[in-house]
Structures are given as structure tokens and as C-alpha cells.
């Protein structure tokens, strides 16, 4: 049972859809469980529930929605999830969606422990997943919620079996952008790969290729700084290279995109022509639409991952 009902407010992005491994957080997590023949799988959804369900590439997942996700705690979602699944299996593995780096061997070790209450630990610190029996699951309905799932386990009649693992990922969640990027780097350093995603590069061609991201940035900076030299400095290219880029654009198009002004009340400088402004505006819109379309195509072919 996977809990994925939260708002992801501190992350400022929808955590289950974030890239992880060769897929997304959601598909990466579910794929690991599927490879271990864990069945059934219930996902507790809430915030952006339809987006999450549509992004998961397995059609046999059970979904339960926490309608009050914005006002309740994770424990409430746990109760909803176990109520859905407890009569379908003997034991229930409980974990949040935002722990995507947990190793398969960690899950295998925890699953091998025959105990009523199993809790994963790393260097003595509690983490996930947690495995409970149906009897414990039924007791959650009447629990007062103090200290959440941990409090319910500690108050239960059976002792907790702590399983020590060599996997810090059991408590490395991703609540903030900083934690997400730190986890990605940490996971990469231990040889588990880096998130895969599409990279869109749009170039315009006439007789020759004449406009790309560098040319776009150059013209945008000329428009804002009113100076070719300053624009070249901002883009990180020499003045001679910048001048060459402008000449190539104008030669391929057959009309000027930059005009130079000297003297006068407003002083000298360089400005984009009306055609130059239209060029950068349309290019920007084209790139954004291409990126959005590429994201859709990427998810269609790659979101499930390569190791299925």
C-alpha cells in the first residue's frame, strides 16, 4: 500500500511525476514492487489524483482517494489504504510514494521477516517500508491517531521487529527541491543511474541553419540591454562572434533584425527591428510548444521505464 495523497506543497512540484531512475517516482516505485510479485497494490491518492492515475502504466493498480487530503495527515491516508486492501492479503507493506531510492534487496530482506509488525531501520533510525498483519490493520480504525502509524505500532499488543538494512534510502524522502536534487546525486554516486528526460533543441534553417538557442539569447539580450557588446558578454560569446551570428541571420532572412542608432536625445545603441522582435517571440513560442509536445511523447514511450 503506497501513500501518495499529499499536496507536495514544499516541493512546489507534483512528487509522483518527478523524474527518477529511467522513469518517474511513481512508476519507478511500483515497478520495483511488481518485480517482487507484490500483489495487490493499492495507491492512496488525493492531490492531482487523476494526473497520478493517468501517469501510472500498470492497469491493475487499486486506487483509494483521500477526499480530505488537504486537511488530514498521512495516518488518515494509511487507514484508508489498509481498509481497502486488508481483506485481500495476509500481510500489508506500507510505504510513502516519496521514497523512490529504496533498493530491491532492502524490500526483499524486509519481506523475508515473519513477524506481525516489521519496521525497517538504518543505523537504528526507523524508516520504510513497514509490514503489518491484517489484525493490526483492523486495529488502526479505532486508534486515536497520536504519533501516527509509529504510535499505533508501539501501542499494539505485539512487539515491533526492527530489521536493520544497509540502505539509507529507507528514510531519504523528497519534501523539498533541495532534498530531491540531493537524493538524485546521492543515488547516482552509488551507481543507480540518473533521471532520464528529453532535451529539445530547436533550430531554424533557410539555405543554412541560422537560428538556435544561442542566437535567440543574443537577440533577447540586445533587446533588453540595447547594446550588442553587452549582449555578447551576457551570452558568453565574443563581440566578433555575436556580430557574425547577426549577419548570418540577416543574410538567410534577407532583411535586418538589429538596427544601430547613434547619437540623438536618447543616445546610441542597438535595437531589434519589428521583424527581429517577431522572430524571437515566435521562436520562443515554438520552443515551448515543442517542449510540451516532446514531454507528452517522452512519457508515452519512456515513462514506464526501460527495465520492465
TrEMBL record:
Gene3D superfamilies found in the cross-reference section: Spore Coat Polysaccharide Biosynthesis Protein SpsA, Chain A, Winged helix-like DNA-binding domain superfamily/Winged helix DNA-binding domain
Keywords, in A-Z order: Transferase
Recorded superkingdom: Bacteria
SUPFAM superfamilies the UniProt entry points to: Nucleotide-diphospho-sugar transferases, Winged helix' DNA-binding domain
Keyword Oxidoreductase among record annotations: no
CDD domains assigned: GT_2_like_f
Domain MobA-like NTP transferase: 2-156
GO molecular function, one term: transferase activity
Pfam families given in the database record: NTP_transf_3
Protein name: NTP transferase domain-containing protein
Record organism: Peptostreptococcus equinus
Lineage of origin: Bacteria, Bacillati, Bacillota, Clostridia, Peptostreptococcales
